[in-house]
Design brief:
The chain is an all-alpha fold. The protein has two domains: 540 residues, no CATH class; 42 residues, no CATH class. The chain has 19 helices and six strands. It starts with a helix and ends with a helix. The relative contact order is 0.12.
Length: 593
């Protein structure tokens, strides 16, 4: 690790805290029931147009129904637009409608904030589909999760309430006052930095290959032949061309990062210079990924009336991330021994599958951030990471995407783990567990357990099926342990709504399109429904006063307990599977010869 790498980490930490802490105050205000004054004029106009009663409060069942129905309709709209895009305008490459299985998978993917892409964006989706279907869902799926986080935070603050708020208000505020302004500013920066934003047709250009230049004609003696006027004769050039895709890239790139979506306009994602043009844009994209998830921790402290609670959750996330990032950085700063044995330069670490503009350090850090935060954007190929380097993105996803996690989903996922942590502490001392003045009872633990266990079910079961049938194994590009890791990564990414992939798996098949879509849907809403049920139960409880037997949930002891709970659940659930993939691969790669 060089001095500039240490400086990058320090700058990242300072920038993230400096931006997320004040943003947390704004998020707390958005989650409140107070009017936003003059800012609320547009909001109220939207309610009148859409027929929404902003004053109507919802219980958890109505709130959950609104979330599911709204997103199901969104999936149908995306699917329909994909299927008929060939007959619609803004289609410069004359792309036809998307095949049914891929369209179904993509629609579920973007509605669930997964953004799993089993296709190359620039050769599959028209401009209209990219803008009206995919980019719009980037906003709406992110806002849906933020709304659920608002509902759970309010549940801890309320006493004896039967309602959680209004989903339509929460979602509207999330888009209007948070995601749109941040995305507009960030898109403006990206355009200034070199990202493109246009509706132009695809451009055909000559490549840098020297074969397209006219070559001097030589005689038998190797001398340049001359014409009657003494000018050199030349042979005609060989035309070498390349088609370069254009399009509205910056607008999708901005919300892709800020909403922790991850779906790229191009197949190369954030390794493409039109999506991620400079090292500074790469740094700011990493900040954008963690910005709202970090800010929600501080918003949580504001809403429950104790900022120390927000700092405790933030600290637990930070410690987990630092440890995981250290492992992946350590792995990727070491060159592949099989390549160094062939005489490759080992000083730059493992550069396979990485952009020269960013290098092994920034690529590895980006990989840790994007899989910790449920984003799925990549600026290098995770499939080319060293075995332990690939282990970290896998494990970060399998922890439940709670190490900052996605916008909204990271916080409500970590709060579920916090409830499990105080339950375990209560068992240790023989006392009814409580968290923020709310007793944690049988129903609460059932919902928390369901929220924690539903994702492993849709990771491990489909993985077991995929490695057992020809439809699953035939799509694997690499044999042995790495091929198993590719399948495990696919379902870990799908069920945890991350969207990144080990590139060696050819996932655009009927088997993977259907199975990953099912994993994405239940990985999203199989958590949201029990979380909202838990929120409804907590909101109805009265707060009890702190006593000498109450476990403080704002100090180092609780942070350690929370971290231990997350690691314990993740380890018990996934370590056997991880041992068959990246662990075996690492031992084979570094085995004495």
């Amino acid at each position: 690790m060089q001095i500039k790498d240490i400086g990058l980490i320090a700058a990242y930490a300072v920038t993230l805290v400096g931006l997320s802490y004040p943003l947390g105050s704004w998020l707390a205000r958005l989650a409140g029931t107070d009017s936003l004054g003059r800012l609320g004029v547009l909001e109220r106009a939207l309610y009148r147009i859409s027929g929404v009663d902003a004053d109507r409060k919802m219980g958890w069942r109505a709130y959950a129904l609104a979330v599911i129905v709204f997103n199901a309709l969104g999936a149908l709209a995306v699917y329909a637009l994909e299927r008929v895009q060939g007959a619609l305008p803004l289609n410069p490459a004359a792309m036809t409608g998307v095949e049914a299985g891929l369209a179904f998978n993509t629609a579920v993917s973007f509605v669930t904030n997964t953004n799993w892409q089993a296709y190359a964006g620039e050769s599959t989706m028209s401009y209209l589909t990219q803008m009206l279907a995919l980019t719009v869902q980037n906003f709406l799926s992110a806002a849906s999760a933020i709304a659920v986080a608002f509902a759970l935070m309010r549940a801890f603050a309320r006493r004896g309430s039967s309602t959680l708020g209004n989903f339509w208000v929460d979602m509207t505020r999330g888009v209007l006052y948070l995601l749109l302004p941040l995305s507009a500013v960030f898109a403006g920066y990206l355009i200034a930095a070199g990202s493109i934003q246009n509706l132009d047709g695809y451009v055909t250009v000559h490549t840098l290959d020297a074969s397209h230049y006219d070559k001097p004609r030589l005689d038998a003696a190797g001398q340049v032949q001359l014409d009657d006027k003494g000018n050199p004769l030349t042979d005609p050039a060989v035309s070498t061309t390349q088609v370069i895709a254009m399009g509205p890239v910056a607008s999708q790139e901005a919300i892709k990062m800020i909403g922790t979506n991850g779906g790229g306009f191009f197949n190369a994602n954030s390794a493409h210079p039109f999506e991620n043009p400079t090292p500074l844009s790469n740094f700011l994209q990493m900040v954008a990924i963690f910005l709202i998830p970090a800010a929600l921790c501080f918003a949580f402290g504001h809403i429950v009336g104790d900022q120390r609670q927000g700092w405790a959750v933030f600290a637990a996330m930070t410690v987990l991330f630092v440890v995981m990032a250290a492992i992946v950085l350590g792995a990727e700063l070491v060159a592949n021994p099989q390549l160094t044995a062939l005489g490759m330069d080992a000083t730059q670490g493992n550069m396979e599958g990485k952009e020269l503009r960013f290098g092994s350090f920034s690529s590895a850090l980006f990989g840790a951030i994007t899989t910790a935060a449920s984003c799925g954007a990549v600026n290098g190929m995770h499939d080319s990471f060293m075995p332990l380097g690939g282990f970290v993105p896998l494990f970060l996803m399998e922890l439940g995407e709670v190490v900052f996690g996605g916008v909204g989903s990271g916080l409500y996922g970590m709060l579920v783990y916090a409830i499990l942590a105080v339950f375990i502490a209560g068992l240790m001392i023989g006392r009814t567990p409580e968290y923020l003045g709310k007793k944690i009872e049988a129903f609460d633990m059932k919902m928390a357990s369901l929220a924690i266990l539903v994702v492993p079910l849709f990771v491990l079961l489909p993985t077991a099926i995929a490695v057992s049938v020809d439809a699953g194994t035939s799509a694997v590009g690499n044999p042995g342990a790495h091929g198993f890791s590719e399948i495990l990564y696919a379902y870990s990414s799908a069920a945890n709504n991350n969207g990144s992939a080990f590139a060696g798996l050819s996932a655009n098949t009927p088997f993977y399109n259907v199975s990953t879509a099912i994993a994405m849907w239940f990985g999203r809403f199989g958590i949201i429904v029990p979380v909202l049920a838990l929120a409804g139960s907590l909101a109805a409880k009265k707060r009890i006063e702190v006593s000498s037997g109450t476990l403080p949930t704002h100090g180092p002891l609780f942070v350690i307990l929370l971290i231990s709970t997350v690691i314990l659940v993740g380890a018990l659930t996934y370590v056997p599977a991880l041992a068959l993939g990246p662990v075996v691969e690492h031992l084979k790669l570094f085995a004495p010869r």
